[in-house]
Amino acid sequence: VGDSSVLTCPHKANIIMLTWKINPKAGGPCILGYRADTNMTDRTNCSDSMNWIFSPDLAPALEIQQVGIAQEGNYTCEVVSTEGNFHTTYHLTVLAPPRLSLSCDEHGSPVCEAAAGRPPAHVSWAPESNSTPEEKGHDDGTVTVLSRFTACSTSVTNVATCVVFHPAGNWSQSTAC
């Protein structure tokens, strides 16, 4: 989320026509077209955050600026050249890294929150905890995971470390309540 993404088409000589067919999970389909004979581009139902990248030495590409969850979906590039017709399909999956916070509840127990992640984060503790994480889904497709530290034995240190695992990265924080 928030980054730019660049998807490339097959690099072919003598391109006649190039089309991106975009089917996002949210909203309707979008089509970007380019005709070499007229050097014209056309867009149908595409947001301004989607733009062509043309360069003589590189494969033609589509840049999606400030990617959001709404842009997740299938992106197909169709190239027509004197060599033939070529298709490349991408499935764009958008990751939202969670915001990590660690605090102490009213009973003096550590509470770890991995807020608004996509997909949901996995939360664990060091030392090991008997806690069962709670998940809360949000309208934007993100999920907050909340975990309360529960010691497995009585001979544990008073410092607990929350470890968050997510495809966008891993984080940890420690606290003594």
TrEMBL record:
One of its GO terms (cellular component) is external side of plasma membrane. GO terms for molecular function: signaling receptor activity. Residues 116-140 are annotated as: Disordered. Transmembrane segments: none annotated. Residues 1-93 form the Ig-like domain. It is a single-pass membrane protein. Gene3D superfamilies: Immunoglobulins. It comes from the Eukaryota. SUPFAM superfamilies: Immunoglobulin (SSF48726). Its main location: membrane. InterPro entries: CD200R, Ig-like_dom, Ig-like_dom_sf, Ig-like_fold. Keywords: Disulfide bond, Glycoprotein, Membrane, Transmembrane, Transmembrane helix. One of its GO terms (biological process) is regulation of neuroinflammatory response. It is found in: Membrane. Belongs to the CD200R family. This is MOR1B protein.
